[in-house]
Amino acid sequence: MISLKRVIALLVIGAALSSIGGCAFLRGSATGSSFVTSDMWHLRLPGTDAPGQNAVGYRSPYGYEEYDRSTANGRTEAISFYARRPGIALEISPERLESLTRRWNFNGHDARLSWAQEPGRRIIGTSIAYRLYRRQGPGSALAVACVAFIRTWAVAGDDPYLRPTRAYFGYHCRLPGQALSAATALDYLRGIKVTSSSVPDFYIGQTVPHDPAALARASGTDDAVWGIRGFPLDRFRHYPIGGAVIGGGAD
Q: Is residue 244 in some structural domain?
């Protein structure tokens, strides 16, 4: 049963969102990033059995984002999104996989990405889209084999654009000199799990934990070859139910 406190919070959030107008990126007044504890750990990358010191969660009135990384079988980074309902959807889609992949510090800057497949590949029977590529670092003659991936699901049926409310995206690269076949890549992607752990509640008057070290870990300001530029990405968009769509924006 939904608590009275949560009902009041949803009503206040809805009223605040309705007054925002055409704001594209919705940041809450009570937001913060902190290292993830086991009770709020959602994104499980292959080879990890507990949230390590690199898992970072971002809380806002509009949703929850979680960043994590792994060095099992190479290197992997991913970020997951959970939109709070009602009236909130995610501005994210497989069509943006290439530009989203470029946002990772490892794939940005002066790195050269050579895409090995046409866009639009999906794992049969799943909502996971993927694309193989090779990443060559600046000043290096050696390229590493990688796969970019994105999954979106739980479409908001009352959203005029039918956008998802759950998503994750990221990349996985093998060690230098190791091959990455399509079959191996798909096996790895099938191993990514999103658990049903409880998303941290938001309520009026809440003090949201915020740790600058956690924000630095997820954004890469403490290590330029890890993290994603602009964390938190705030892909959450408000849509007035039965009205015009508000939100949208570039990657």
A: no
- Does the residue 243 lie in any domain? no
Of 149, 87, 145, which is closest to residue 113 (Cα–Cα)? 145
Question: Which candidate, 1, 51, 6, places its Cα nearest to that of 201?
Answer: 6
Q: Contact, 226 vs 105, CB < 8 A?
A: yes
> Is the residue at 245 inside a domain?
no
In total, the chain counts a number of residues equal to 251
Distance of CA 52 to CAs 38, 44, 70, 71, 108, Å? 9, 11, 9, 11, 25
pLDDT tens digits for range 13-42: 444 444 333 333 344 457 889 998 877 788
Cβ-proximal residues to 7 (8 Å cutoff; 6+ apart), any chain = none
The per-residue pLDDT for range 184-221, each reduced to its tens digit, is 999 999 999 998 666 666 666 667 888 999 999 999 99
**251 lies in a domain?**
no
Q: Which domain holds residue 11?
A: 4-238
pTM score of the predicted model = 0.83
Q: How far apart are CA 80 and CA 151, in angstroms?
A: 9
Contact 170, 191 (CB under 8 A): no
Tokens for 197, please give them. Answer: 């752990």
Please name the residue that has the structure tokens 């970072």.
56
CA distances from 169 to 9, 92, 99, 128, 207 (A): 29, 9, 11, 9, 29
- Sequence-ordered alpha helix ranges (H) in the chain: 4-18, 97-102, 182-190, 212-219
Total structural domains in the chain? 1
